[in-house]
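Researcher: I'm comparing several assemblies side by side, and this is the next one on my list. It has 462 residues spread over two chains. Same procedure as the others: predict the full complex and return the structure.
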Amino acid sequence: MRVTVIDYKAGNLTSVLKALRRCGAEAEVTDGDLSLVESAERIVLPGVGHFAATERLDATGLTSAIRAAIARGVPFLGICVGMQWLYAGSSEAPEQPGLGCFAESCARFPDGQEKVPHVGWNSLEVRPNSRLLAGVEPGEYVYFTHSYRAPVTADTAAVTHYIEPFAAAVERGNVMGTQFHPEKSGATGLKILGNFLKWKGTE
Amino acid sequence: MITKRIIACLDVRDGRVVKGVQFVDIIDAGDPATQAARHAREGADEIVLLDITATHEGRATLLDTVRRTARELFVPFCVGGGIRSADDAALVFEAGADKVSVNSAALADPMLIEAIGHSFGAQAVVVAIDARRDPNAADPVRDAQVFVQGGRKLTGRRAVEWAREAEARGAGEILLTSMDCDGTRTGFDCELTAAVSEAVNIPVIASGGAGTVDHFVDVFGRGKADAALAASIFHFGVSSARSLKEELAKAGVSVRLPC
């Protein structure tokens, strides 16, 4: 299982690599070598921090290379900001477009009811037939740390409640994303990464 | 539903886990990597490793210990002690930490909070505050005095105002230690924790004084803590995070179970 991990200098790369390798993946890293994206079998885009950091993907040509890889059917997993990047954009950096796989935009949690950011372990309501979250039982917890989130739509693979329901995971064809950090979510997280690595990309 | 986090804390000196009582009386409590793995296995929601003597002795954070500890850890891992610059932080992240905790260096140069947050995101910056109630202040709790260097040096800052500044500068969380309660196992300082938690809109981790399950119930309720840190309660097999959380669940606290 070979996986190409995108380094855009804003991810917790070490943790993501460690978890993927623990799941049996051969992980390679690119911060601009487009040939690694062109030959990728699977792609993971980690992410923590600010949406504006994804500008680096445009500047290095990675955005176009990833878009082409997704069009070829290469399985893609975006984590946290990496998931948000799959949408049209985010109010965190309105001038910076996302990839636009999903038409909606990400926005900040409303102020005043609970603390923002949403930090900690929260539960998932997994929608039927999710490939990414197969085997995740009701009441299993995953680790979140974020202030922005995507809305619940037909492509939502799991819903989490904080202030209001939001998309904890998204899934359409070969494009998947998690707002939570599977690499930091214990056994549940490793199971989810394992699902991504094992998915053949044809189902 | 978001759960209250139980965080296992490893105070490390010279590569070994130690435990002090009110910042002195150090006793040996094992190997950091082994202890961290055990706590994660036993249900801790997060691990914090604090190199308690790094600032005092001017030593760099023990990157090797961090690397070894992070290797088999798949829950959030925060490291503090001796981080004075964004470059120091970068080395700690590269070694496998998800968050860094800054204390003395942030008080000496509050811009450090912005610098680390800018490169690694606000979620990666935990500002640790060591505070002791000030009986001479108008409000002994809100105006608790902030100390650095393991409680050896007074800063002139007050707990609530410093927590607010840290938030404004982009801190992702506050790790608040009551020096009055630390190591005593007589309970958290719930008034101090609530004062800080209500003053900021970022998570507050309560620390210092954990001894019984009731202390945790109290700090999550009255103390309005988002997470609580425990060290001595776990080290000697007194209680595991899992058994603590099972008791908390019975008391109506929302925790991650099974874990």
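Model: For your comparison table: The two ends of chain B are 15 Å apart (CA to CA).
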